Amino acid sequence: MRDEQIIQGIRNGEEAAFKELVDKYQELVINVCNRFLHNKDDALDVSQDVFIKAYHSIDRFRGQSRISTWLYRIAVNESLNYLRDRKRKNIFSSLDVLFSNPGSDPLEKVEDNDDIAPAKMERQEQKDLLYRAIESLPKKQRVALTLNKLEELPYKEVAEIMDITVSETGVLINRAKKALQKKMVAELKKN
Amino acid sequence: MKCKKVHTRLLSFYEGTLPQGEMEQVKRHLDQCETCRQLYHQILASWKMAGEERIPYQPFFYTRVRQRMANQSRPAGSRVRHLARTAIQPALFFVVLGLGITIGIQLGKGIGSQQTAQVENQQNEYLEAYAENQFWNGFQLESLEQELFFADTTSLTRSLNKQEDSHE
Predict the structure, then answer these.
(1) Which end of chain B has fewer CB atoms within 10 angstroms, the N or the C?
(2) What gap in Å lies between CA B115 and CA B122, rounded to an integer?
């Protein structure tokens, strides 16, 4: 089924068309969410919301851009919203930890990490280093860098997703790259 | 090229997007500087690993999406619970916190003023007692004054007695 047929089918309320959309683009959406959330379960969770949002706002899709660009845009927004909400929730959960009984101390679970192989832990640390550096970047730089460098999208598509010009995208990515390297070098020197 | 300058060009060097001259300068520096070479390899390892990470096709994903859609369209009860969790709970938390602080301040004020009043009363009693005895006690302590006083009075009585005797 072609993209236009999928869109028309969803507008007509055809279940098969929506299933086609989800099956065709689920990998794209799940992976872009994972690029921002760095957690598979969260990425799957948010991806479901992305498709639900796409389903409900299908009438607002004017067909000026590709479906993938439109889905990317929803996925980026949903992921950033999820991160913002999680930050807010963390404030309350930290209060919960303060008032909870000592047996439920989450730090006690750290001992379980002994079972993880050192090589796997080292790989995870290397990844965490990059993720921390990316998360510390300003929002626009983070989005541009993630889409271009990790999702390997061309500047033109990143510009479309972010609703900015191609030259602005280039500036954002260059700034992000420089800042990212500085942060990673500083972090590595500390270790 | 100095280390600091090289550090901001590592990713571009890896991608080969630097101008020819800078590519050669960074390469020469990395050949000579062990610290920068190690940093370059570590950054590159993290970069490649993050890029390679991909979640494969999920077979039951569509079923899960439909299930969530069905759950979301369930009215009233769940929405009220969601609202209670997201809005009312935090609001209640802050109301209780504010009440606690206000009550604490009021109680603190009460206890504080009672204690101050007690201390003030005790101090006043002490000061009054001190004031009552201050003159005599002070007088006793000032031995020189005491002697002079008594010396004066005795000499005075003596001279008075003499005058009386002479009259007689």
Answers:
(1) C
(2) 11
Q: Is B30 on the interface with A (CB under 8 A)?
A: no
pTM greater than 0.90: no
Contact assignment for B62 to A123 by CB distance below 8 Å: no
Q: What is the 3-state secondary structure (H, E, C) of chain B?
A: CCHHHHHCCHHHHHHCCCCHHHHHHHHHHHHHCHHHHHHHHHHHHHHHHHHHCCCCCCCCHHHHHHHHHHHHHCCCHHHHHHHHHHHHHHHHHHHHHHHHHHHHHHHHHHHHHHHHHHHHHHHHHHHHHHHHHHHHHHHHHCHHHHHHHHHHHHHHHHHHHHHHHHHC
Rounded to whole angstroms, how far apart are CA atoms A121 and A113? 9
Q: What is the DSSP letter of A105?
A: -
Distance from CA of A88 to the nearest CA of B (A): 10
The ranges of chain A annotated as CATH 1.10.10.10 are: 116-191
Q: What is the pLDDT of residues B91-149, one digit of tens each?
A: 888 999 999 999 988 887 766 667 777 878 888 887 777 777 665 555 555 556 666 66
CATH 1.10.1740.10 is held by the domain A1-110: yes
Instruction: Provide the residue ranges of all domains of chain B, joining segments of one domain with +.
Output: 1-54, 139-167
What is the predicted ipTM? 0.79
Are residues A31 and B43, on separate chains, in Cβ contact within 8 Å? no
Class of domain A116-191: mainly alpha
